[in-house]
Amino acid sequence: MRKSNRLMNASKVCRKSGAVMLLLPVFLLGACEAASERVAQEAESSGSLSGAPHRGAEAPGNGGRGSRDYVRYDPPVTLTTIRVNEPGMKFAPGDSYNNNPWTRAYEKQLGIRVETLWSDDGGQYNRKLDLMIASGDIPDFFRVNGAQLQQLAESGLIADLTDVYAANVSDRAKKLLDDRGPEPISLATIDGRLMAIPWTSTLTEAASVLHVRTDWLKKLNLPEPRSIGDVLTISSAFTASDPDGNGIRDTYGLALDRNFNLAAGFFNGLHAYRNIWIESGKELAYGTVQPEMKEALALLREMYASGQIDPDFGIKDEAGVYESIAFGKIGMFYGSPFAGSFPLQQAKKRDPSMEWKAYPLPSVDDRKARPQVPLDVSGYWVVSKEAKQPEALLRLLDFWIETYYENDSEESYYEFNQSRDNNPVWKMAVVSLAKQYKNVDESLRIIEAMETKDRSGLNPEDKGVLQRIETYLRDGGADGWMWNYMFSKGGSLSVADYYRRNDLYQRERFTSLPLPITQRKSEALGRLQSETFTKIVVGLLPVEEFDRFAEQWKSAGGREMTDEVNEWYRKRGSSLHK
């Protein structure tokens, strides 16, 4: 099959890479792509939940429902939960998940004692929770993924929250959820009944940007990336022109990992969308098997063949690729705006001469590239049907919103948000909801304060970030670099703001809990995809094999899956996205 003109023009740049490295690719089995569904799940088991509530005497703030905020249980009630271990957080001496600033505040101000039954790392947590669900012995409230929510609802183990939510949700919590549109609540609704509170995330503001080593750009007199053609030119030079000056051809132009997670932004620049459902006329189509993906894989294949991609990418996960970035071996990668924190902060500490800049996704043509964004719901809060006060979950969530987002007390900020020694105390909270553009909005406030010299609109967290930026700009050093990289004008969060202002997102259009056929078929189809993509890129299969893969995908269950998704779309989905 002939390439389109735009692909032929773009690929010419790839061929101008100077000496071509002879690569002997090893047979690579693509790793099964587990959907990295972050599900920190917290739960509570049976407890004596009696006691007449009264208003807490020391409740902070005046929330949306006035005196109904922080209604205190007296005597206190005990709720049980389970937790995912939080990375990067440490407890003060004597503290634990059962005894920390947040749990002490819950008891003092809400009359709610929280008992964590156990905690574990993410994967093991899900396995242990699945066993609890199978046994029917579940905690009082906890966080689950979509499949677990369905299982719990079908087995009758969780409470119907429809009336509880209508009677008890605070104005601030309702606004936070309603600001996302109808999808979050719809996702948590089964057969017309609200069975969970959606755990909203910041995945939209984390949409992919292109991170580029600008010190290498300057050294090699290269343009900033405005198009896919520019990306290919830069990648070729970063590979062949010795940007690190060591006289050895040991650098790579573009990062790629074995699961192709770091390729999302590159794919999007060619209007290809992997692992999401997109609108195609009046129906939905799976982005992975569309023709644009073939063009993107063809370019990656050429880049790999000319040495611009690490030949070991097929055995490296994202952590392994980030290590190569930190060691100065890769000059460009697609990733979240928060890559300034990791891996770039570590890279900067190792080599202070490194300079990076984040750019909007370059496009292959005159259409703007749209970064793909998944569902902005990372899980669901559920309540056991045995819990006698299911509304307690909503009180905990309301307390989180005011304490984390609306607090203007510096003392409270250091106690509940980020300690003076930069410990993320907020991770100790047992429940949370995220504002969609929390960090983008913070960046805008900081930029305005820097330009106007007026800090009156800053909250304690903003002031802390601004202080780190100003210290970095004044004194240098690596410690404050990441804050400047992300939050200052022209930083990575400015790119995220550009996406928001121009609504430059390719959103997942299948906004439903997992459907039966999808649950049965997606794992095997994911393996087929991963193996085929890897073999095409390393040259073990011709590019034309993509067409056979697309047909295999359909015959192995993809066609059934597409029919199932479009049946949902005709019934409910199209109305959600009007």
From TrEMBL:
<keyword id="KW-0564">Palmitate</keyword>
<keyword id="KW-0732">Signal</keyword>
<dbReference type="InterPro" id="IPR006059">
    <property type="entry name" value="SBP"/>
</dbReference>
<dbReference type="Pfam" id="PF01547">
    <property type="entry name" value="SBP_bac_1"/>
</dbReference>
<keyword id="KW-0472">Membrane</keyword>
<feature type="region of interest" description="Disordered">
    <location>
        <begin position="43"/>
        <end position="70"/>
    </location>
</feature>
<dbReference type="InterPro" id="IPR050490">
    <property type="entry name" value="Bact_solute-bd_prot1"/>
</dbReference>
<protein>
    <submittedName>
        <fullName>Extracellular solute-binding protein</fullName>
    </submittedName>
</protein>
<keyword id="KW-1003">Cell membrane</keyword>
<keyword id="KW-0449">Lipoprotein</keyword>
<feature type="signal peptide">
    <location>
        <begin position="1"/>
        <end position="31"/>
    </location>
</feature>
